[in-house]
Please model this.
Amino acid sequence: APGEYRLYTTKQFDAPVIGIKDYFSDSPSYGNLIVYPNPVDQILYLQEEQAINSVSVLNVFGQLVYSAASKNGMEQIPLQSLKAGIYVIFATDNQGTIKTSRVVKQ
Model:
């Protein structure tokens, strides 16, 4: 939609981000979710110590663009059909804990 959009962040990183491994580890709700590569072009990989039960991907408008049940502790998410932008990943483990991460789709 036409208009002016601004993106704000609450954390500043000193090194270039080539992948995300829980930069928010000071919060126990994030666990050890590993998400790579970031930015991503086609396939995004998620890995977690606890078994991942389900994965959801939302765009910046909060619309669900991908959802699937997981088969094991590592998940491959096909993102090649999505437009370039920022997406939020929600991974639910076998204890019901929801872990989140943000990724950039090229």
In short: Confidence is low (pLDDT under 50) at residues 11-30. DSSP finds no helices and eight strands in the chain. The CA atoms of residues 4 and 34 lie 33 Å apart. The beta strands are 20-21, 34-36, 43-47, 52-59, 64-69, 74-78, 85-93, 98-105.
